[in-house]
Amino acid sequence: MAYTEEELKKELETKEYEYGFYTDIESDTFPIGLNEEIVIAISKKKEEPEWMTQWRLEAFRVWESMEEPNWANVHYDKPDFQNISYYSAPKSADPNKTLDDVDPDLLEMYRKLGISVDEQKKLQNVAVDIVVDSVSVATTFKKTLAEKGIIFMPISEAIKEHPELVKKYMGTVVPQKDNFYAALNSAVFTDGSFCYIPKGVRCPMELSTYFRINQAGTGQFERTLLIADEDSYVSYLEGCTAPSRDENQLHAAVVELIALDGAEIKYSTVQNWFPGNKEGKGGVYNFVTKRAICEKNAKVSWTQVETGSAVTWKYPSCILKGDNSIGEFYSIAVTNNYQQADTGTKMIHLGKNTKSTIISKGISAGKSQNSYRGLVQVNSRADGARNFSQCDSLLMGNECGAHTFPYIEAKNKTAMIEHEATTSKIGEDQIFYCNQRGIDTEKAIALIVNGFSKEVLNKLPMEFAVEAQKLLEISLEGSVG
Amino acid sequence: MLKIKDLHANVEGKEILRGINLEVKAGEVHAIMGPNGSGKSTLASVIAGNDNFEVTQGSVELEGEDLEDVSPEERAHKGVFLSFQYPVEIPGVSVTNFMKTAINESRKAKGLEDMPAKDMLKLIREKSELLEIDRKFLSRSLNEGFSGGEKKRNEIFQMAMLEPKVAILDETDSGLDIDALRIVASGVNKLKSKDNAVILITHYQRLLEYIVPDFVHVLHNGKIVKSGGKELALELEEKGYDWLKQETAV
């Protein structure tokens, strides 16, 4: 018999987090709490130069005077920042190890996640920098990349090996004082990725980082800095999963992209952190600041598939500074149970003839709340700026919410700004039609959702698109109304 | 093949089917005719297992198996196919992708591996030629922006792909111009065999000129009030349903 809403809801409730396991790895964890000493200790632990320590302290002092933002359409118990440990490194981590030397427990963890290192090694043309908790465990393909002059390494190493680049660019797109979480990240970030593509170089492979949170009660504050020099090209993939935890875990990342004249950056994210259980207990708080600056003729595309986290606060943005620069944002955000997402983008048009495209697909199920929040701003000097925005929402059941908050500020008469929005619901008639063709309800939902999200899924690199589709299915198993 | 015994069904508490008896054997074509609201589409939905309809009495059997506790998708796997009167749109899902999923889900239920892409392409080519379907059509989103005729032709294309045992065509002729009707009818005729059966639900005699039924049944007020050969359809065309309504009222 076909499903009734009640039956479906029940099934949805019994759905457990697929990746809710915990791998027991000995780690080296700092005591809880945050003060200048902890900031200095982190810097010391990372063997950082003095300028970096000072940079962190500046950020910490700013952070102390700031308040958590309250404007987002999300409601949660504010984390106690003095009850978090700000450093946790797996003890077995050693950057000099080869992949074969990696702790078998870790490898097992990746196997469970379906992103095993073994599997990744087989994925040709994918260089992987894996971040487990706070320290990069292994970096592959470094040598191949080095031949092209491409630098791809943990940011902690870059601080030591390429201080001139880090010093020049870090904090230029997302300043320390940008916002509460960015300031916190600037003070306590433990690792992340650094990438530099030299002038005129097309990065021959997709660069990839997997982040996950493992240790209980630790926050993860990773920082990514990606610089594409003039006329270069890079495609960067970032994937996230985290094991199941009862208490909320904080994640406050900063990503800065710098696309110099004529450069192109594609930045793709699949985020599947623990969303909390069916009662809305636990889950990751994902407060992320991602921003790109585009110089003349440069192009940046953000593509994100957000299925995890209890609370998401994330607006990958583009500052279109140079003339003729292009910014794109393609997003799929899925919320289920008690998840809350407030996500979108900011497109700041400063240069002449700058163009931006925003395609946002929100899918809400259970009792979740899914908000799109976007700003399109056209500066007075940005002659001929163009924007196209499309925000589509798909609802399942009668207890979830979809919201759209588009902000448009045009200060130039020549600006052309278009905004389209739709809201739809998966219909029983659609489900029955699929059932009649031999497709069960879960598969039918996956099919309908994938169809709904197609424009965005198509923007992902091939191997990522397959993973993302799988993730959409997992996230929505059994949910419809 | 399909045996319906004293079937009663409600929708939202209202009785629509009031004791249907029908036996359809392999190799046969049955036409079910009747005025609006007589229960024709309800019968089709109940056979397909749509649980918006509550079966209160009687049974539907497929090859001797009672379908009462069989889900719609399992019925499909067992060979029940319904060509919908109003096919739904599924944006972003191409006809090809939809068919691939449907075929592989059926195979999975039978413990078979996915159909190799090569075979799938061959099958699609073969069946689309049968229904004179342009290959470009197959990459479009399912039923999205399709004309009435395209939707119906797409339903029969799906029937051709899935090769059901019992195909119920619910008003497949409505919305078709004469050329499309001819193509669809010729497709159905080519798919007909001694091993499968077709139930045509229609208002008009027109379709039956192209797909000739072995039996014609007239449904009125949730009951089959008259059964006969193909000549019954002509008689209905001539006299209208009022004739029957009067006759059965007596």
Automatic annotation (TrEMBL), chain A:
Lineage: superkingdom: Bacteria
- The SUF system FeS cluster assembly SufBD N-terminal domain extends over 122-203
Give start and end of each SUF system FeS cluster assembly SufBD core domain.
211-452
Q: GO annotations under biological process?
A: iron-sulfur cluster assembly
Which family does the similarity line name? Belongs to the iron-sulfur cluster assembly SufBD family.
Q: What is the recorded name of this protein?
A: Iron-regulated ABC transporter membrane component SufB
TrEMBL record, chain B:
Keyword annotations for this protein, in alphabetical order, are:
ATP-binding, Nucleotide-binding
Tell me the InterPro entries matching this sequence: AAA+_ATPase, ABC_transporter-like_ATP-bd, FeS-cluster_ATPase_SufC, P-loop_NTPase
- The segment(s) forming the ABC transporter domain are 2-246
Q: Listed GO molecular functions?
A: ATP binding; ATP hydrolysis activity
Q: Does the keyword Transmembrane helix apply?
A: no
Q: Which family does it belong to?
A: Belongs to the ABC transporter superfamily. Ycf16 family.
Identification of the protein by name:
Fe-S cluster assembly ATP-binding protein
Q: Which organism is it from?
A: Maribacter stanieri
